[in-house]
Amino acid sequence: MPRYLSNINLRKLSGKTCLLRVDLNIEPGEEKNAYRVDVVLPTIKLLLKNKIKVVILSHRGRPVLKSTQLLKGLKSDWDFNKINRRLSLKSFVPLLTRKLGISLCFIPYEHSWLLDPKKFISQRKERLFLFENLRFYRGEETNDWRLAKFLANWGDFYINDAFAVSHRNNASLTAITKYLPSYAGLLMEKEIRNLDKVMKNYKRPFTIILGGAKISDKIGVIKYFWNKADYFLIGGGPANTFFAAQGLPVGDSLINRSMLESPTSKILSSFNVRKSDFPKLILPVDVKIGDNKILDIGERTIEEYNKIIKKSKTIIWNGPMGMFEKKGFAKGTKKITQAICQLADKNKKAQIVIGGGETTAAFQAARGVIPRQVCVGPRLFISTGGGAMLEYLSGKKLPGITSLAGVRG
Ligand code: ADP
Ligand code: MG
């Protein structure tokens, strides 16, 4: 179990500087509407309120070619000119300043090497700092201890509030915890508590809804919950892949071909039996087709899925039911969203977890609102994690979370 920020005596830390890892991995230009920004504000506010200075750390996109990461040395032969500076975090300065109502000091890449961190922070009038995109630095993605040590100089303790990237073994998530007392932030705590609830204290009927693009990401969740859940409602690419595995014609539909050939096909073929043997795994009974592709679930399927959602007490949803971005193929996802929202509103016993980048976007579009917090009402939790959530829900240990335990505070 990680140490939670909410459990520590913050007054003891007043006057100190916190290195806060968050997830600001948002496309340039889309900062303003980003749900990811709003959900990390509570931790920042709590720290500032307790007179703790905050240095915000995040990565954004892929500013450097992967192969460049393999060069040796932390800085010397790192060609800064090859970095895509469009992915600088500087564009968050006005937004964070406005949302938090205090001024913020940005630390550019070049300066970060020249400054004496402790001296610099104590001399500045600002209490909030934003570090440049961590992937501008060599060693972030290779979990390099030298980068971790360099970053650790900027704070007295460390908080991870970036659940969505905690499945990665990166310097600012894992190696850094070797150098500083480390804690889980408020958002991280919400993620862990809500996901643990559906993993350990779920109520039945328990329904898992899986759609989206790749079935390979989701197989772990199916395996983990196979003996726990009552229904798996399948849509999107995973449904197509199951159809293909059963030898049904799928035209040019999106399928995971590798899943049909790799050893994992064993799992698929174990599901690839008569429906009566596996009543839990529910595939669409009708579909909508465009351009010779299966692009959404059909009307009868919507009806059948909604009936099951209505009687469920626990629901996990990842992956849109169809290609909802394309006109005419959003209905399945929209209807599922509505059924889930109705359940959240009506059934006091319901517990619902939704996650995934596109799933959250589709959910917001269908509902016509942009949730500003992870808990939309007491029964509906929107995870900030896509891959991280799926790995967590597959029972895997996430390096960014396990590294928060056992560090002296
Ligand atoms: P998330 O980001 O929520 O984890 P995924 O990344 O797995 O979800 O998948 C989302 C994408 O899957 C969407 O862009 C959607 O258009 C696509 N998708 C869903 N169903 C289909 C389909 N039947 N055919 C093609 N693409 C689909
Ligand atoms: Mg996605």
Task: Give an overview in words.
Substrate binds at residues 23-25, 36, 59-62, 135, 168. This is Phosphoglycerate kinase. One of its GO terms (molecular function) is phosphoglycerate kinase activity. ATP binds at residues 218, 325, 356-359. The structure is a single chain. The protein is an alpha/beta fold and 409 residues long. It has two domains: 5-188 and 398-402, Rossmann fold (3-Layer(aba) Sandwich); 202-376, Rossmann fold (3-Layer(aba) Sandwich), CATH 3.40.50.1260. Helices cover 33% and strands 15% of the residues. The protein has helices at 35-38, 41-49, 93-100, 109-114, 117-123, 145-152, 186-200, 219-225, 236-245, 257-261, 265-271, 299-311, 331-346, 357-367, 387-392, 399-402; strands at residues 17-21, 53-57, 104-107, 128-131, 157-160, 182-184, 206-210, 231-234, 281-282, 287-290, 293-297, 314-318, 351-355, 375-376, 380-382. A seven-stranded mixed beta sheet has the order 9-8-7-12-13-15-14, with helices on both faces. Strand 14 (375-376) and strand 15 form a beta hairpin. Helix 12 (299-311) packs parallel to helix 13 (331-346) and helix 13 crosses helix 14. The radius of gyration is 23 Å and the shape is elongated. The model has no long low-confidence stretch (mean pLDDT 89). The structure holds adenosine-5'-diphosphate (ADP) and magnesium ion (MG). Residues 356-358, 386 line the site of magnesium ion.
